[in-house]
Backbone:
């Protein structure tokens, strides 16, 4: 077996380190791509928050002739008016009222919207 020079040893070590780094960086993306399990749908809620009635419940796609793909089959109401919500890929939720502040649950999205509205009524969002 030929003698290993210092240069060859360093080159082999650098190649192994680069391979390990690439494997580590691509592993999360590969596992996310193979993720076949949908995120669980949150349960229902019905409460009064800051004097406003907020409700949320799972719903089936296509209820009332509308397609609710962005909300993941979940409906949120503030004083009986629908708050359009959307579930992000990471599982967080946003609404049309607090679009740039993702929260953990639809209930938190409803509460954030109530806070943002500061007593103003939620106006119906026109459907496309």
Residues:
């Amino acid at each position: 077996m030929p003698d290993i020079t210092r240069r060859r040893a360093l080159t082999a070590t650098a190649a192994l380190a680069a391979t390990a780094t690439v494997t580590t960086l691509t592993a999360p993306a590969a596992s996310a791509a193979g993720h076949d399990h949908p995120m669980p749908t949150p349960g229902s809620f019905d409460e009064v928050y800051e004097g406003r009635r907020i409700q949320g419940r799972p719903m089936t796609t296509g209820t009332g002739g509308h397609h609710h793909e962005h909300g993941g089959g979940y409906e949120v109401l503030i004083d009986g008016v629908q708050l359009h919500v959307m579930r992000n890929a990471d599982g967080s939720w946003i609404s049309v009222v607090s679009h740039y502040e993702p929260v953990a649950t639809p209930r938190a999205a409803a509460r954030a919207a109530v806070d943002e509205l500061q007593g103003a009524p939620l106006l119906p969002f026109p459907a496309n």
Summary: The first strand starts at residue 45 and ends at 49. Residues 6-33 form the longest helix (28 residues).
